[in-house]
Amino acid sequence: MATQTTASCTGSTLLQPISEIINLPLDQVNFVACQLFALLMAVWFRLYLHPSKTSPFIRHVVATLLGFYLALFCFGWYSLHFLVQSGLSYSVMVFAGLEHMHKYCFIVTLGYLILCQITRVYVFDYGMYSADFTGPMMVITQKITSLAFEIHDGLTKREGQLTPGQKYLAISRMPSLLEYLSYNCNFMGILAGPTCSYNDYMAFIEGTCYQPRHQENANGKENGKYKQSEPSPKNDVISKLCTCAISLAIYLSLCKLLPVEHSIDDDFVSSTPFHLQIIYLYLAMLALRPKYYFVWTLADAINNAAGFGFNGYNKDGSPRWDLISNLRILDIEFATSFKMFLDNWNIQTALWLKRVCYERCHINPTAATFLLSAMWHGVYPGYYLTFLTGIVMTMAARAVRHNIRPYFLVSDSYKCIYDVITWACTQVAISYTVVPFVLLAVGPSLKFYRSWCFCLHLLCLLVVVALPVKSRRGQVKEQQDGLQKDSLQDNQTEHNSTDNNCNQKDKAT
Fold first, then answer.
1. 201-223: per-residue pLDDT in tens?
2. Are the C-beta atoms of 218 and 168 separated by less than 8 Å?
3. Is 377 a catalytic residue?
4. Backbone angles phi, psi at 433, to 5 degrees
5. Can you give the residue ranges of every domain in the chain?
6. Rounded to 5 degrees, what are φ and ψ at 363?
7. What is the pTM of this model?
8. Dihedral (Cα; 322, 323, 326, 329), 10-degree rounding
9. Which of the following is catalytic: 346, 364, 403, 501?
10. Angle at 376 between CA 384 and CA 99, to 5 degrees
11. Which one of 224, 237, 422, 487 counts the least CB within 10 Å of its CB?
């Protein structure tokens, strides 16, 4: 297996002997080796290039050069696409007018990513689902488009036109080329991200990330009390590395025992009762997720080891290092709604989609967000089947939650029953939805859905028709009207109280 994938690996062949010994593709071995090297460099970066010891310029240069080295080791000359994409987008930022710069930058950056994905899939190596150069480009695309919108918000809009989150993220000056490249291609996030805001990254480089920034951060959560001493990420890094080790062990142990492809095997479908097919699908997806847990948790540990990711303090005074965390494993595995699962899976991507699409799209933002997510992920048809299914699932889950959930809130026992039922339904719905995402091609994906008679598609459509739900914007408007009504009532009450007090004073006089 390792020998067969050598030709498809465009990076260094230095670790080819190790690849053959452990029987894993060389590109995956290079990826893990580079991430472990980045972890060591992150510790060195925090200790020996601390902001108190060196200038932001040196920190930017070192972080960028190390990032380029890791990219060259993993992807060879394909890593030049990172520079081309970043260079084209920076040119748009500099030469385009501020009024429409963010739109042009969005089109150029996403368009270049899609062009590279089309070339990789349909020209070179269709069906290869491994470490490839478009993976880092996906993170760079998030960073560039976020930066463009944040510059647009900071330089063209008044504070009254921005939400609290947009005010926190808004950028009031154009970054220099070095700052821009450091933000996009630093060694901590060049291979697996996660994405982060430009302001947070600059605060890390300049050493101001431990100071109080706002009463609330970009996610709308309290930043915690501020301490003068700089907190250490050691405990969190060790904890996340242990999570990585457990996740990797589970994935390597179960991925070959429970392949998702087995769920469309003709013999399996014809001879297995439907309820056992459901259980198998859930277990197969459960065995697949630790791969993502490993990659994203390791990336988070690398950033934390460098001193990036501090997010205030907990109530007990312990530091929080989850500013750029990409997942919450327990909340994923015990999610009781489709939305709860998505909110805790690939968190930074979900925030990016919310900031650049959902909050700014005025026509059906849910569908637009899912479509953008599919385009960003790649050009495999399975991605589009997954996200089209996700639209229907989200609408149905929202309808059930708004119409049925209130009846189960009358007591704790009813609430517990509701949580158990919705947990099971959520896990089955998620597994059903993401099968095309794993199978990639149209034929196998439709074969799976036909074996299930498209039952969840039909059920969700029936729920959406039978249980209509007001749009999010309508709900927000109702809440605002309610607040205004309450405010008027409070003012009227205060006015009446003042009149009564005046009358009492007159009587006393």
1. 999 999 998 876 543 444 444 44
2. yes
3. yes
4. -70, -40
5. 14-209
6. -120, 110
7. 0.86
8. 20
9. 346
10. 125
11. 487
